[in-house]
Amino acid sequence: MSQQKYLEEVLEHFDKANVRPISTPSLPNHHLVRLPSPEADVKHFQQALGALMYLMLGTCPDIAYTVAALGRHATNPGTEHQHALNHLFRYLRGTSDYKLVYRCGVSGGDSILRYVDADWGSDVNDRKSTLGYVFTLSGGAISWSSKKQSTVALSSTEAEYIAGAHTAKEAIWLRRLFAGLQQPLSFPIPLHIDN
Questions:
Q1: DSSP 8-state assignment for residue 66
Q2: Could you tell me if 80 and 33 are in contact, meaning their C-beta atoms sit under 8 angstroms apart?
Q3: Nearest 5°: phi and psi at 153?
Q4: Could you tell me which of 133, 168, 162 has the C-alpha nearest to residue 149?
Q5: CA-CA-CA-CA dihedral for 49, 52, 57, 58, to nearest 10
Q6: Within the chain, how many helices (H) and strands (E) appear?
Q7: How many C-alpha atoms does 166 have within 13 Å on its Cβ side?
Q8: Per residue of the chain (195 residues), what is the pLDDT tens digit?
Q9: Helix (H, G, I), strand (E, B) or coil at 157
Q10: HSE of 74 in the Cβ direction (CA atoms, 13 Å)?
């Protein structure tokens, strides 16, 4: 599954078709600070973010964290937020040919795997943690999320526990979805988490 044509149109529309590609969607340990009022063009920032959100929801789980982090600042973007958005465009320039691939006969491909992780209090604005998960089937991602946790975790263990619980809810939903499609899962869905 690919959205390469759409991505090329987005890059062209926002004058990013000729930017120099880079290998990461965001800068490591780069924390965006909430601003009291906008310092950049709000409408342009929101339009670009919306276009990238469509990509993230469709075929680009690799940009979920960055899009979610930028989305928290969509009403009051500043220079740093615009820089982070441009960084994401540069990443997408270099990965425009990436696609989700599902293969028959992949070792363990008939089982759903889930990977989950959480940081601990990385949001400098409110000290809440961010969680992320991805479910794979036949070698490709089928469900993914990056979300700020609703409460402040008092330890990294608590942040991981909250992330695991959130991911377990998605696993239950996927199990019910497959049962509704007359393809019930006869195996447990393993949780891969660092705790």
A1: H
A2: yes
A3: -80, 140
A4: 162
A5: 160
A6: 5, 4
A7: 25
A8: 999 999 999 999 999 999 999 999 998 878 899 999 999 999 999 999 999 999 999 999 999 999 999 999 999 999 999 999 999 999 999 999 999 999 887 665 567 888 999 988 888 888 999 999 999 988 899 999 999 999 999 999 999 999 999 999 999 999 999 999 998 888 888 888 886
A9: helix
A10: 15
- Residues of the chain by 3-state class (helix, strand, coil), percent to 5: 40, 15, 45
Give the pair of three-digit tokens for residue 42.
């709000």
> How far is residue 181's CA from residue 166's CA, in Å, rounded to a whole number?
23
Residue with tokens 């973010």: 49
3-state secondary structure (DSSP) of residue 104 = coil
Structure tokens at 140: 């490709």
